[in-house]
Amino acid sequence: MPSRSSVLLFAVIGTLLMAPAAQAICVGEAVVTADPSTDPLAPGWVYTVTITWSYLYGVHHWVIPLDSPDGTCSCSDFQIALDVPSPAGQSVGVPGGCLIPYAGSLECDGDPAGILTGKLLTFTPEESGDCGLDSAGEAVLQFRSALPPAAIAPEASFAAVSATGGACGMPLAGVFPAMACDPVDDEDTAWGALKCLYR
């Protein structure tokens, strides 16, 4: 498995973000699949993140938590394991079904918006003046890795961050690269240590 502990990390962050009031205005899910790469010059696996959502406040960017600030995986571990192409995917915008590209980024010092701490994988829509992201839709995003896939536990979640600084947790399912380091060992990490990842 890629990380027993990252599974717990996803689950705890999802619990913190999905307050009762937010559940009525934020609905969605993400599924990560992996396929062998057909590009001989690229890493061996292509990971596709398909997100469907409806978020009343709109989405500024997506966040997949990878590890806590003091976790067992270093930033260099993720830099070696993950390769994010440019653009990192797209979604259909408004008006008229225009296409919006996404910028992907590995953030080792937390979310630039200040919502989550730790090591994160973020995807930000690059909206233009005549093409914007709707409050509901589907995004197809990608990252690559030389590491084969391993299953993500059912409790996993990721975050949608709004332009107003709010956030909402949504279920995350599928696979993630199997990393040798074990981020945030779930047997040794207290609830309080994980809780501090959300601010």
Provide a short characterization of the protein structure.
With about 200 residues, the protein is of the alpha+beta class. It has helices spanning about 5-15, 20-25, 75-80, 190-195, and strands at about 25-35, 45-55, 60-65, 90, 100-105, 120-125, 135-145, 150, 155-160, 165-175. Helix content is about 15%, strand content about 40%.
Strand proportion, as a percent range, falls in 35-45%
H/E series: HHEEEHEEEEEEEH
Going across the biggest sheet, name each strand in turn: 1-2-7-4-5-6-3-9-10
Radius of gyration: 16 Å
Number of strands: 10
Category from helices, strands and their pairing: alpha+beta
Can you give the mean pLDDT? 80
Q: Whole-Å distance between the termini?
A: 28 Å
Fraction of helical residues: 10-25%
Stretches with pLDDT under 50, minimum 5 residues: 1-24, 184-199
Give the biggest beta sheet: 9 strands, mixed, barrel
What characteristic shape results from the CA principal axes?
globular
In total, the number of domains comes to 1
Helix tally equals 4
What does this 3D model show about the protein?
The protein is of the alpha+beta class and 199 residues long. It has one domain. 15% of the residues lie in helices and 39% in strands. It is built from 4 helices and 10 strands; from the N terminus they run ααβββαβββββββα. Strands 1-2-7-4-5-6-3-9-10 form a 9-stranded mixed beta barrel. β9 (157-161) and β10 form a beta hairpin. The radius of gyration is 16 Å and the shape is globular. 40% of the residues are buried.
